Amino acid sequence: MKLVMDVWRQAAPGEAGHYETHEVDDATPEMSLLELLDRLNFALVENDREPVAFESDCREGICGACGITVDGIPHGPQQNTPSCHQRLASFHDGQRIRLEPLRSAAYPVIRDLVVDRSALDRIIVAGGHVAVPGGSAPDADALLVSHERAEQALDMAACIGCGACVAACPNGAAHLFVGSKLAHLSLLPTGRQERGKRARAMLNEMEQDFGPCSLYGECAKVCPANIPLTAIAAVNKEGLRSFFRHKDD
C-alpha cells in the first residue's frame, strides 16, 4: 500500500517549522506508524537526506516515549492505543496523513517529532514519590491492603506518562496524569504519610505549565493505559483535603 505523509520538520527549538511531503509505496497494513517512519528514514538516508527525528524505546506500549500526532489526534486514530501500536490497517491505500509532534504549550519542540515533556517530570519530582523507612523489609502482612483497593491503585498506576492526555486537551490540562498519580499513592498505606504535602506540591507544579481541565474527556480517549476519567476527581479531592487538613500532614 502507498501512503502520502505530510511530516513536520523543525531543525531546532524556537526555529520555524514546516511540513515536508513524502511517499512510502511499500507499506503493509501490519506495519506500525513507527515502522512507517523507519521505512521513510531508510529511504531518506539512502538519498543522503536528513532522517526524521522521532522518539521510541520499547515499542511495546509500555515506555510512553513514542507519542506523535496523526491527523490532529494524539497517538493516532485507534483510541487508547500508543503510536507504536497504531497499525496502518487503519488507513487506506493512497491516503494522505499528517504527522506532527504532540502539540501543547507545555511541550516545546526539540526537533521534528520530538518534544520536551520534562514538565511532566517536574510534577513527579515535586511529589510523585513516597518516603520509605530504612532497615529490613517489613513482613508481607504488616500493611494490609484489600484486594479491591489494590486493584484500584494498580489501575491508576498504569499511567505510562506519554503525555497524550495533555495534547488532546484544548486547554493543555494534565489532570488525568496528575490525578492518576495522586489516586494511586493515596490508595496505598505507603503513600499516606505525605499525602497532603504531595498534593500541594504536585498541584502547585502542575499549575505552572498546564491549563485547567476542559471537562470534555478528550484525555481518556487517547490514553494508552485506559486511565479512567474518575482519576481527574482525585485532583480536586486531594487538593481540598490538603487545604482543610494542612496542619495534619
From TrEMBL:
Q: Write down the top EC class of this protein.
A: oxidoreductase
Q: Which domain of life is it from?
A: Bacteria
Q: Where are the transmembrane segments?
A: none
Instruction: List this protein's GO terms for biological process.
Output: respiratory electron transport chain; tricarboxylic acid cycle
Q: Which Pfam families match?
A: Fer2_3, Fer4_7
Q: Which intervals hold domain 4Fe-4S ferredoxin-type?
A: 150-179
Keywords carried by this UniProt record = 2Fe-2S, 3Fe-4S, 4Fe-4S, Iron, Iron-sulfur, Metal-binding, Oxidoreductase, Tricarboxylic acid cycle
- EC number(s) per entry: 1.3.5.1
User: Does the entry feature the keyword DNA damage, yes or no?
Assistant: no
Molecular functions (GO terms): 2 iron, 2 sulfur cluster binding; 3 iron, 4 sulfur cluster binding; 4 iron, 4 sulfur cluster binding; electron transfer activity; metal ion binding; succinate dehydrogenase (quinone) activity
Instruction: Cite the SUPFAM superfamilies for this sequence.
Output: 2Fe-2S ferredoxin-like, alpha-helical ferredoxin
Cofactor(s) listed = [4Fe-4S] cluster; [2Fe-2S] cluster; [3Fe-4S] cluster
Q: Which family does it belong to?
A: Belongs to the succinate dehydrogenase/fumarate reductase iron-sulfur protein family.
The name this protein goes by in its record:
succinate dehydrogenase
Instruction: Record the organism.
Output: Tessaracoccus antarcticus
